[in-house]
Structure formats: C-alpha cells, structure tokens
Recover the amino acids of this structure.
C-alpha cells in the first residue's frame, strides 16, 4: 500500500519546527508502523536527507521508549498497543497519516518526534520507591500478601512510563503515571510506612515539572498501552488527601 | 605475543564455603572512606542498575550511564518468563546444590563451578530483596509466593510477575537507583553512550562518552569501571534484543585489552514469531512458558501446504515429544531450537517462508478450557495476534528460533573483574555463569546477583587495594581517547558513500546467522570469515551517515555500533571455528551423533576461550582458562 | 557511617502547600462543587413547588425571606463558595493551558466526553446566565411588571405570577432551558469528577458512578425545565382570580433585591 505521511520535523529544541510531507511506497501490511518509518528513513538517507528521528528500542511494547502521536492519538489507533506494536494492517492504501511528537510543556521536543521525558524520572526520584537498602531484607514469604492486593499492585505496576497519558491529556497531566506508582505501593504492606510521604513528594515534584491538572477526561486511560485505569488517580488523590489531613492534625 | 595469565581467583576450600570464605578474605573499604571513591557504572539494566544503587547505598560516589532516555528502559525489561531462586518454597526437592547442578549441566559443563555455585547461593537473597522493594510477584490465594516450573527444570523454582517479570525486577532496581539519584549519591547520565575505556597505568580509570543529544564527546574519571552493557545478540541483526542493544562498550573495552571470552556461545530462543518479510527489524519472543501447555509439531510430509487444522493427527510430527520423551516440549532451548531448524531444513517448515513450526494449544484448550489458557497466556496470545493477525485460540501459533541471549562476554575472574584491573563486567556482558547455554529464568537471576550481591563486595577488594586516586580527566590518556573517539565519529560522517549503516547491519546479520547461527560448520565459518572483512571494508568505503556530529543523530549512533559489530562478528566466527566440538548454543555439525545430538570434546575443550585483541583486522590471540570440575562429573547432557 | 543516611520521601525538600498542589486545587473544586450542587438541588426542589399552587410557592418564598440576616449569611457563603469554585476553575484552566502550549495538528479525542471538555465554557455560560437570572427574578430589574405585582391572598410577594410572566416570553424560556442544559452537562461531569478528586471511586463502582452522575444531571434538567415547559405549554397559568383589593399593595414597597429566596425559578 502507499501512504502519505505528514511528519513533524524539528532540528533541535530551539527550532520552531513544521510538518513535512513524505510518501511511503509499497508498504507491506505485515510490517510494523516503525518498520514503515525505517523504510521511509532508508529512502531519505539515500537522498542525503536527515532521517525522521523517533525514539524506539525494544519494539515489543514493553520498554516504553516509542512516543509517536499518530493521527492525534498517542501510539495510534489500536487500543492497548504501543506504536512499535502497531502494524500497517491498521491502515489502508492511500491513507494520510499524521505523525507528531508527544506534546506537553514538561516533555520538550529534542528533535523531530523525540521528546525529553526525564521529568518522569525526577518524579520517581522524589518518592517512587520503597526505602530499603540492598541486603537485610526479610524472607520473601515472611509477609504474606493477599493475592488480590498483589494483583492490584501488579495492575498498576504494569506502567511502562511511556508518557502517552501525558500526551493524550488535553492538560498535559501526569496523574495516571504518578497514580500508578502510588497505587502499586499503596496496595502492598511494604509500601505502607511511607505512603503518605510518597504521595506528597511525588505530587509536589509532578507539579514542579509543569504537568497540568487532572480534569478527569479519562483520555489517559483510553490511550494507555497497558490499560492502567483512572482509578489509580482516585487512589492517589485519596492518599494525598489522607497525607495532608494526617500531617496537619 | 602477550604474557596474560588467566587467574580465575577462585577461592580454595569446599564449594559451599568458597563465597563465605572469600567475603571474609577480601579487603573492605572503611565506611568513612567510601565517599572518596567514584565508581563508573555503564548500563542501567538489572546488573548495572542494581550495582549502581547498591554501591551508592554503601556510600560510594556513583556515576551511571545509559544510552536510553531513562534507566528504566534497559532491555532487561523485556524478559517475560521469570527468575529462578533455590528457595524450595514448593517443597519439591530444590536446593542450592540442585540449582547449581542444573545450571552447570544446562550450560553443558562449560562454566566455572565456583561462580555458578555462588549464583545459586545468592539467588535466594534476590527474591527477598525484590519483594522488599515492592516487586509484585505472583502469589497464591494464601498470600505466599507462587512458583512455576520453567525452561526444562524439574522443580518449580521460578518466580514471576505475570509475563512481565523482567519489567518488574528492573523497575525494582530502577526504584532503588532513583532513590539514590534523588539523594544525590548517583549522578545519572541518560542518553549517553560509552565510546571508549580509559586506562591509566593499565588500570581502568574512566570512560569517554558521547552525549547523544548534543553530540558532545567528554570523559569521566573514576576509581573503577563496571560494565553492565548487555549482550551482543544484535550481531545477527534480527534478534529479540532491543534495537539499541550493542556490543560497543564491551568491544571497545576489548580493544583496550580486555579479553573476550567464548563469543561463540549464543543462545537461540526456540519460541519466537517467525520472520514475516524483508522489512523486518526485530523478532518478538513468545515466553517459553508457552511450552508448558503448547505442543510443538511440524508436518510429517515435506512441503505440506495445507492449513494446520486440515493436517490430520497422524500426519503431524510432534518431534520434541518423539525425540525427548522425558522432557518433551520442555526440552532446553538449544535442543528445541535446533530441532525446529532440522524440521525446516528438512523441508517441513510452515508459513510463507517455510521457516516455522507449530506451537499448538488445541489439546490444552480441550483439556483445560479456553478460559484457563486465556488466564495463563492471554497477554501472549494477544501479542501474537497483534503481530501476525492470526488468532492462536483458533489456529496453532507459528514459531521459529531467534537470537536471544549471549552467554559469551568479557572475561572476568571470580571477583567479576576482567584482566584489566579496575574493569568489572556484570550481567550478560560478562561470560561467567551460563557456560555454553543458559537455562530459562536464569538471566535475571545472574544480572541481579552480580549487581546486588557480588560486585558491591568484590569491587571493595579492588578499591581497597589500589586506594582512592582522584584522577583528573585532564590527563593525557583522556585527551587522547577523546580525540580518537572524535576522529572515529568524523570518519563515519565523512565517508559519504551510498549505503546506510542499517543496510550493512542487515547484510552482516545475514552472513552471521547463516554461517554462525544455530548450527555451524567449518566451511560456513571459513566463508563467513572471508565475507565479514570484505563487508567491513565496503562499510568503511561506502557508508552514508546523514546529519551532523553535534546534534542528536540516530544514523551516527547506529553507524558507530554497526562498525563494532563488523569487527566483533569476525571474532565470533573465529571462536566458533576454533571450538571443534558441539556444546550448548554452539553446535558444530561435524560433531554430532548419528541421531543428531551434540558431541562435546571434553579432553580438548574444557576451557574458556578468552581472546585478546591484536589490532584491527588481525586474528585475535587465544588464551585459555582451564575449567576444573571438582564437584560434578562431566556427563553427556541427555534430556531423553 | 555505615551507609548513606536513609531518607524517606517525606524529607524531600519540595513539599508544596495544599492549595498550590494540583490535587489540592481539585479537592477545593470538588468541595465547592458539592456546595453548589446542594444549592442547585435545593433550588430545584423549591421551584417544583410551583406545581403545588400559587399559595404554596409564595409561602415558601416568604419562609426564606423570613430568615432575615440568616438568609444573608447563606447567600454570602454561597457566593464565597461559587467564587472559590470559579477561582479554582480559572486557575486550573490557566495552568492547564500552560501545560500544553503546543496543540496537535491532527486533533483527536478518544474518550473524553463533550461535557468534560467544555467545563470552562459551560461554567462561564452558567455564570453569565446566573447574573442575568438574579437580575431577572431576584433583583427583578429586567422586567418592570415584576415590581407591580399585587401581593397574594396571604400577603406574600407573588412569586408564582412572576415566574409565569417571566416564562411566557418564549425567548426567556428557551434561554433558561439552554442554560439549565449546560448546567446539567457541567454537573454530569462534575459529580463524577467530585468523587474522583476526593478519591472515592474504585474500579468496581466506576461505571455505577458514571450512571449516577448522568442520572442526577438528567433529573435536575427535567426538574428545572419542567417550570418553563409548564408555562409555555399552558400547564401553569396565571391565577384566574386576582388578589382582592385590600391586599393590593405595590411590590415596590418590598425590598427590591432579594437574591435566591424570592426568585426560585
């Protein structure tokens, strides 16, 4: 099939950037979206044009590196699928596809579709952990954890930190990402002693990074490749409120 | 040409007491003095991330580097199945010794006993540590940890977190690392790639890196360097590794004098989704756990084009069950992979290109019900359907082996230190624990063992011996290395030929896969050893790299990595050619039984082949570390 | 020093105050929203008394008026909560616009409801209508007839007739219904948001909560629209017998500004 691509090109963080049009010819329906871009890039490189830069690594939907907004939707039209797992059979011959970077003030564009997501790392550094040093941990079975709690924690822990939630949110809010981590630890006995502090510290850092506020659009949930639910946001709100009440009393 | 003697530094004494004894014998760094030392950790996966966090917790200054945009993205994240530990929670007869024995045997008696025993010992601490970090392992209704049997083990010792065990373990290490970054004990450098190792008076004291955003090349000095930079599976181009996985850090250390051990031990994972076309950039692994319920078969008739469902039962060859009745579909990876290749070579492969066999769940679905299968493998089935557009509940999956893990790596002693003093190598990047073949769910175990529980002890011994040196990057050694890195970068950009690095990589991968893949022979290897230098020569003549030096430039990153694969591939084939036996992931067609089983040559090859770089395009020099087996008897590996 | 000092996240230097935290603002939004919603519900219940007849409605109005200073306390607190709601809403919106400075060329929405995406616009329109509505039925400055209405049999201001006169004009009725419609879309997302912001949702009750929010909004819409619809369709008519002369007293002598209480509509 032949596809027309409208791609955001931006030389570096200071370049204003613009959409450019390319054509992808003879694309196999079995190729992945990124492989289609590989083909286009091979062509561009032959012509001496700097290829379209895009972040990608594992190409199996788990590392969270890929970060394309395809036709206005982070990771593209297929639900619960990262851009790297999207295949061209989701499109048809003659389609025009818009490819843009994740848009949020907290995710500045570095080049083309590559954005800087280190804000997420800094949120994690503020409190996304349980404070245990290596060594000295008690036997793994010393604290039984009900299966339901472990499963809930796992549901939240499935987050791959891709940032699609932020990109999809009309407010550029990171609540789903932060809520997922807060929820994971809030469900586990190991996470209890620090849970109030964790919620406050992570939220403070999130705000500091310039992410927007949650308007409960649920766009984040709709595009999350790991199907993290907005209830993690409610859980974080609860933890945050609890932490505030506790520290003021 | 050199006088390297390989001293494994394995402590004396009974196997079970070696590690304890060694920990007592090693020198310690006084707690107050730890902050005087800087340790450079390259890589932020299970090994690198765990080591960086643990060293920082101890009080060392740590600088950690990764090429990804965040330490959380290291490729350890993609491991699906699980992590082994000799906890014996299931009361099924597991023990440290059994895990040790299984690993030695699984590695086809080509690993170092003492290392493997230590690995089995600390495996139990890993699980404790991860649970304390909040890793949500699967649990039973009573609240205790669940285990499964995995990858040919006859005990249930594998801990798992759905199909995302690697992710959860990495996020655990990442959380520990994040905490230390937040506390200011680790300086993290994401999107930064190591280009060279810097030696001062023969000791590894720093690295040269390129900032992948600005293109700036700079140096970092430390008192020791630890490489946790993963394996070289992308030498085959198509592999289950991430696109960014590369041999560059390890290979450039090799060029500075670190010996590269057993490069020919590569693991080909049996259950990957087959290649779908020329456009393919990577292969996707389907967790080996699928083999617990799926049955592997190929048609009995050659060139049988009928859809799987129309091939009657008696015309199907369940070849693993036939050849290995006691292990059946759970036969180890190397054996399963080779059997699939045999079936396809025999003209009985399925799918468009005839490179695939079936993994059939219809029996399991009939026996256990679709719901239970969905519960166990739902996410894997979904993934398969997303990629192939076939519904595995209705038609059997098609699978084919793909490069997955590399057992070979930089040579290290018992302290995980290479022959270059100060250079430590951890995780998949070293060669130490898996011998010629790695068992399922053991990679995560080794990465975390090295990072959490081995390196933090052993590096102290080195540091205490040499003392804090506070080396400056103003030294000439750093300036020279930086200059060389810049020249290499400029050279790549200045060729201005007609082919991209990606296309060279694809061609290189094809040569290596065809001649040094699942099965190797002298003729093929010699052919490859002739083709690789030719291709490399063409690479340096006809490469085209778009973009500029001082900017984010993915073409340039790729070109630098492919350049190293071009050299490394030759070393891989050379090692494969020299090892005239079949063992584990290294199968030489000349050395097999009439039934096609691997034949080792213990008299001649019970050693680690550690190669010394002798110059660009020159044949590397072999050094041997004899493997001593005091606790297990060398036996023919049989899974019949 | 056996190891680095163990620091818990609590000691992180960047501990923001409640109101400057995004969740804090959302919580204030939710609380003020609850107050506003209670008012809206009470208001509707008051309005619906029109169907119980002229006397009943007018008496209800008088009972509110008789609260005297208490009424002013209620009015002022309500206004303060409205102000807080508006202040937070504007502040959040301003921050949100800043957080997403560049828009997508290809704009797409996967899941967000129209009501959720138009909160600021429905809110602004409601505010404008609110002002008009107060001038119309409470201050009664937009329609001179309201000030000349005779007192009812019980000597109370004739709210009943005022409402019917007010809604006899189809434009008035239409504007009212549209405004109430916007209010209800605002509320339908608002109720769900309220629970979410206060952390009172869970995966098991999320669907129910959405349905509940929609149901409340629908009930409010029907309840509010019933009055103008009743007037337009003729179900509600001006009383046939005008009040007797001895009760005739110009409404002008009443206190002209009587927010809410006199203007239940």
């Amino acid at each position: 099939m032949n596809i027309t691509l409208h791609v955001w090109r931006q030389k570096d963080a200071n370049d204003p950037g613009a959409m450019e049009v390319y054509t992808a010819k003879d694309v196999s329906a079995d190729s992945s979206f990124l492989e289609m871009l590989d083909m286009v890039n091979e062509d561009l490189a032959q012509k001496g044009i700097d290829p379209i830069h895009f972040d990608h690594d594992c190409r199996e939907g788990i590392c969270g590196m890929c970060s394309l907004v395809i036709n206005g939707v982070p990771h593209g039209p297929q639900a619960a699928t990262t851009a790297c797992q999207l295949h061209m059979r989701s499109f048809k011959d003659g389609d025009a596809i818009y490819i843009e970077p994740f848009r949020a003030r907290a995710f500045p564009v570095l080049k083309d579709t590559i954005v800087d997501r280190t804000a997420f790392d800094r949120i994690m550094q503020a409190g996304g952990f349980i404070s245990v040093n290596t060594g000295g941990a008690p036997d793994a079975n010393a604290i039984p954890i009900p299966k339901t709690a472990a499963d809930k924690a796992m549901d939240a822990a499935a987050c791959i930190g891709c940032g699609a939630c932020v990109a999809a949110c009309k407010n550029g809010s990171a609540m789903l990402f932060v809520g997922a981590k807060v929820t994971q630890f809030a469900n586990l006995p190991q996470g209890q002693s620090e849970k109030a502090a964790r919620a406050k510290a992570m939220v403070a850092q999130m705000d500091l990074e310039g992410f927007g506020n949650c308007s409960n659009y649920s766009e984040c949930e709709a595009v999350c490749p790991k199907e993290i639910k907005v209830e993690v946001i409610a859980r974080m709100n609860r933890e945050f409120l609890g932490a505030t009440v506790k520290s003021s009393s | 040409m050199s006088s390297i003697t390989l001293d494994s530094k394995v402590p004396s004494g009974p196997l079970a007491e070696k590690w304890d004894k060694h920990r007592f014998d090693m020198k310690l760094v006084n707690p107050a003095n730890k902050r005087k030392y800087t340790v450079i950790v390259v890589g932020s996966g299970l090994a690198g991330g765990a080591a960086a966090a643990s060293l920082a917790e101890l009080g060392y200054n740590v600088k950690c580097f990764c090429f990804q945009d965040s330490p959380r993205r290291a490729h350890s994240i993609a491991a699906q199945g699980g992590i082994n530990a000799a906890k014996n929670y299931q009361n099924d007869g597991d023990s440290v010794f059994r895990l040790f024995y299984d690993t030695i045997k699984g590695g086809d008696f080509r690993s170092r006993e003492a290392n493997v025993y230590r690995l089995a010992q600390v495996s139990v601490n890993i699980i404790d540590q991860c649970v304390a970090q909040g890793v949500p392992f699967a649990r039973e209704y009573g609240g205790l940890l669940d285990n499964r049997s995995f990858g040919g083990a006859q005990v249930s010792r594998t801990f798992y977190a759905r199909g995302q065990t690697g992710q959860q373990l990495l996020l655990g290490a990442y959380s520990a690392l994040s905490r230390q970054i937040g506390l200011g004990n680790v300086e993290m450098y994401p999107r930064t790639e190591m280009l060279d190792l810097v030696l001062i008076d023969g000791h590894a004291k720093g690295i040269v890196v390129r900032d992948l955003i600005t293109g700036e090349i700079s140096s970092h000095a430390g008192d020791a360097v630890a490489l946790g930079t993963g394996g070289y599976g992308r030498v085959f181009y198509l592999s289950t590794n991430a696109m960014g996985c590369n041999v560059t850090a390890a290979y450039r250390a090799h060029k500075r004098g670190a010996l590269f051990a057993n490069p020919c031990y590569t693991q080909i994972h049996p259950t990957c989704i087959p290649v779908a076309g020329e456009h393919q950039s990577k292969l996707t692994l389907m967790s080996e756990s699928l083999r617990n319920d799926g049955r592997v078969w190929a048609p009995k008739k050659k060139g049988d084009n009928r859809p799987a469902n129309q091939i009657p039962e008696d015309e199907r060859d369940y070849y693993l069950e036939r050849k290995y009745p006691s292990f059946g579909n759970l036969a180890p990876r190397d054996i399963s992979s080779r059997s699939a290749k045999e079936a396809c070579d025999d003209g009985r492969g399925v799918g468009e290109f005839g490179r695939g066999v079936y993994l059939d769940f219809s029996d399991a679905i009939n026996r256990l019900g679709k719901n239970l299968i969905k519960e166990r493998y739902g996410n894997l089935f979904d993934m398969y359907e997303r990629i192939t557009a076939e519904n595995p509940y209705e038609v059997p999956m098609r699978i084919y082996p793909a490069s997955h893990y590399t057992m070979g790596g930089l040579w290290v002693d018992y302290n995980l230190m290479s022959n270059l003093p100060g250079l430590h190598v951890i995780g998949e990047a070293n060669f130490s624990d898996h011998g010629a073949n790695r068992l399922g769910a053991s990679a995560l175990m080794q990465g975390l063992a090295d990072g959490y529980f081995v390196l933090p002890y052993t590096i102290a011994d080195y540091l205490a011996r040499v003392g804090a040196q506070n080396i400056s990057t103003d030294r000439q050694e750093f300036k020279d290395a930086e200059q060389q890195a810049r020249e290499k970068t400029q050279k790549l950009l200045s060729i201005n030929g007609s082919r991209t690095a990606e296309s060279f990589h694809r061609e290189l991968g094809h040569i290596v896969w065809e001649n040094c893949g699942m099965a190797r022979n002298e003729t093929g290897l010699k052919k490859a050893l002739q083709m690789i230098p030719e291709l490399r020569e063409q690479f340096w003549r006809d490469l085209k790299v778009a973009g500029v030096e001082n900017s984010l430039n993915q073409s340039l990153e790729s070109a630098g990595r492919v350049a190293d694969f071009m050299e490394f591939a030759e070393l891989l084939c050379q090692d494969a050619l020299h090892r005239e036996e079949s063992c584990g992931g290294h199968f030489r067609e000349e050395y097999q039984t009439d039934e096609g089983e691997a034949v080792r040559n213990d008299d001649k090859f019970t050693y680690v082949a550690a190669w010394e770089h002798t110059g660009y395009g020159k044949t590397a020099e072999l050094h041997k570390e004899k493997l001593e087996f005091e606790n297990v008897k060398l036996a023919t590996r049989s899974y019949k | 020093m056996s190891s680095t000092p163990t620091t818990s996240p609590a000691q992180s230097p960047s501990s923001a105050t409640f109101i400057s935290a995004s969740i804090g603002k959302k919580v204030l939004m939710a609380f003020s929203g609850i107050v506003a919603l209670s008012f809206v519900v009470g208001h509707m219940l008051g309005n619906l008394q029109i169907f119980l007849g002229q006397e009943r409605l007018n008496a209800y109005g008088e009972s509110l008026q008789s609260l005297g200073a208490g009424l002013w306390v209620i009015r002022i607190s309500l206004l303060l909560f409205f102000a807080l709601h508006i202040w937070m809403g504007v502040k959040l919106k301003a921050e949100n616009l800043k957080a997403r400075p560049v828009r997508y060329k290809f704009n797409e929405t996967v899941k967000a409801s129209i009501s959720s995406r138009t909160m600021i616009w429905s809110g602004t329109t409601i505010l404008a209508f609110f002002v008009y509505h107060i001038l119309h039925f409470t201050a009664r400055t937009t329609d001179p007839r309201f000030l000349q209405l005779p007192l009812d049999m019980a000597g109370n201001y004739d709210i009943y007739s005022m409402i019917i006169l007010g809604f006899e004009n189809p434009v008035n009725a239409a504007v009212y219904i549209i405004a109430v419609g916007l209010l209800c879309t605002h509320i339908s997302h608002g109720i769900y948001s309220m629970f979410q912001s206060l952390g009172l949702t869970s995966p098991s009750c999320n669907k129910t909560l959405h349905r509940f929010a929609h149901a409340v909004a629908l009930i409010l819409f029907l309840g509010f629209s019933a009055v103008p619809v009743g007037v337009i369709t003729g179900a509600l008519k001006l009383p046939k017998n005008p009040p007797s002369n001895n009760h005739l007293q110009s409404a002008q002598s009443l206190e002209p500004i009587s927010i809410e209480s006199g203007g239940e509509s």
The two ends of chain C are 73 Å apart (CA to CA). Chain C touches chain A through 55 residues (CB under 8 Å). Chain C has one domain: 22-95+114-263.
